[in-house]
Amino acid sequence: MNANPIRAAVVLGAVTMSAGAFQVALAEGEGPHSVSANIGAVSNYIWRGQTQTDDQPAIQGGIDYAHSSGFSAGTWVSNVDFEDAYGNDTNYEWDLYAGFGQSITDDFSYDLNVIYYAYPDARDSDFAEVGAGVSYKWLSAGIAYTFYGQADDVPGVDNGDATFDEGDLYYHAALDFALPYELGLNLHGGYYDFRYNDGGNDYGHWGVSVSREAGEFGTFSFNYDQIGRETYDDDPKIWIGWNKEF
Q1: 71: number of CA atoms within 13 Å, CB side?
Q2: 156: which residues sit within 8 A by CB, 6+ positions away?
Q3: Where is the signal peptide (predicted)?
Q4: Number of other residues whose CB lies within 10 A of the CB of residue 179
Q5: CA distance 17 to 40
Q6: Which of 105, 128, 179, 204 gives 148 a disulfide partner, CB atoms 3.0 to 4.6 angstroms apart?
Q7: Residue 54 carries which DSSP code?
């Protein structure tokens, strides 16, 4: 694991999930309630620019509930590969989340969400965020605030001096375009503003994803991600994802 491991993101409204995830409808009928499941495969689990699997593949999936009012909730899991602050191997992540979103017009929408990132086989690694996002046509942007983190419990770490602890902020934005031949183009970027170390651990990242639907075979994606700070693994990350809806 890197000195500052980065965890997974789960989709809530306009917040983007890992590109390899896909949704499978379990209940669609008429009425205000719907339930779906998602499962995904990626050659490298990348979140906010950093690998969570030591540049190895991941299988991911979850279950989601949605109400016609705009409320949603769900859970999501993925394998990971890093060490916690005590040197113990961390093998999986389990997220719980809920949110509310609405469309104001045909082009403009918003969402509010909260997510808890759990690492059951790690020590003092869980944290939680509250976030907000907006989207207008092909542009989306948002912010996430860490309001709880177990890193304070690590011996030798002073209050407020740990990443993924209360006060951390993450800013993100993306552009999405439909291209010919059923291709999709996503341009994305973000900036992590850690309360820890007076900015010494802050970083920005950016990336590009190209996807294509393949009928019954689902959707395939080719992805590039890059971190812009040498104190992290700033090698280009090239990875592929696959998803299918049915």
Answers
A1: 4
A2: none
A3: 1-27
A4: 11
A5: 10
A6: 128
A7: T
Residue 141 makes CB contacts below 8 A (sequence gap 6+) with: 133, 134, 135, 171, 172, 173, 174
Q: Which residue has the tokens 């040498």?
A: 230
Question: Whole-prediction pTM value?
Answer: 0.86
Amino acid at 190: G
Domains and CATH numbers, the chain: 21-243 (2.40.160.40)
Q: Provide the token pair at 221.
A: 């994606």
CB-based contacts of 235: which residues, under 8 Å, 6+ apart? none
95, 57 in Cβ contact below 8 A?
no
pLDDT class of 11 with cuts at 50, 70, 90: very low
Q: Burial, 115: exposed, middle or buried (Cβ in 10 Å; 0-12, 13-18, 19+)?
A: buried
Residues β-bridged to residue 61: 39, 77
